[in-house]
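Re: flavin mononucleotide structure - here you go.
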Amino acid sequence: MTERNPGLFGGNKFKLGVFGANCSGGLSLLKERWSGEWDDNVSLAKLADDAGIECLVPLQRWKGYGGASNVNSHCLESIAWACGLLGQTRHISIFATVHATLLHPVFAAKQMATADYVGHGRFGVNLVPGSNAGEFRMFGQEIDEHLDRYAMAQEWWDVIRRIWSSQEEFDFDGRYFKLEGVIGRPGPYGERIPPMMNAGASPVGRDFAIRNSDFHYDWCQTPEDSRERIKESKVRAVPRVLQVWSPISVVCRPTQAEVDEFLNACVENADWGAVDRRNASRLAPRGSKSQSPESVAAIRQHEQARAVIARDHYSIFGTPDHVANELARLSDAGFDGVAAIFVNYLQELPYFVQEVIPRLERRGLRRPVSAVRLAS
Ligand SMILES: Cc1cc2nc3c(=O)[nH]c(=O)nc-3n(C[C@H](O)[C@H](O)[C@H](O)COP(=O)(O)O)c2cc1C
């Protein structure tokens, strides 16, 4: 039996992922902005696989954020995307980002188990409850106080896990799902449940992640601010082992002057209407405490480059030494890994692999890819 999701459990002390490549990028209308096209995703997945990067994590968007850039409007459905990429890679884990509220669990369990066979146990699920009201209306649903997103997600995940581990039919009598004679064979590859990631940020969302997930995909303001929160999340998850990861945005160039020039070009070409729309639409109408209108204004005023390039993830803009130092800082704060977005993944990942990963190896945060694969 091969190892389930090689390198994601154990493996390197500090793990690396690539985030969001299934969607077109760019709150800036730069010519370099990412297309999100399939062939580019295949090239990127092979490059990341060869470099020993542990995983790819997609976004799941159903419509763009409008404006001239209409960011994320081109979005490949992430379970189908994961299947295709698992079929073309050998080591890397590939997650799908699945809206628990939009995809029936009996269907999802079977589809995700099938993806897991394609990858011989390299599939993972990033469970999202959904927070974008406009997308939900496309499905005839409203996000409001009547839809307790995380209570529904809990039932969804309970049904999925039960389907994956059950040889017998069962009934499920929940608040959201009332199901009879449920069965879904085959279970996942090797009958072992794929890892689950969740990015809950509100108190109820974070509780959900701590209770259920293998990876809490947590926001980070500064590594030091996250230190206590990470420790607390891991302690609260015991006896389960919880990894805490964060999304980051990276711009890495040989000199700071080149970094600054690129950041200026991003800001000069920014689609500010789309930046505001995106941040406003991500304010869950009720129940979410993770953003506020003040934060939208703050992003506009104080963090132009970060708002345009990094969306609102922790951003690392600098030379390879700076990027490696920042990643070491995140590791030191307790993060187990990061998943990075780049303005143009295919243009920028090779330099990151060439310059930053060896620096992490020299610090003992990662081992050369050949050593990791020989040991497994
Ligand atoms: C890195 C990251 C990726 C996310 N990806 C998606 C996504 O693809 N689709 C989506 O609807 N929500 C996505 N979310 C939103 C989260 O699932 C979650 O709703 C958000 O962090 C707010 O937390 P809350 O639901 O506890 O309020 C993402 C969040 C983070 C931090």
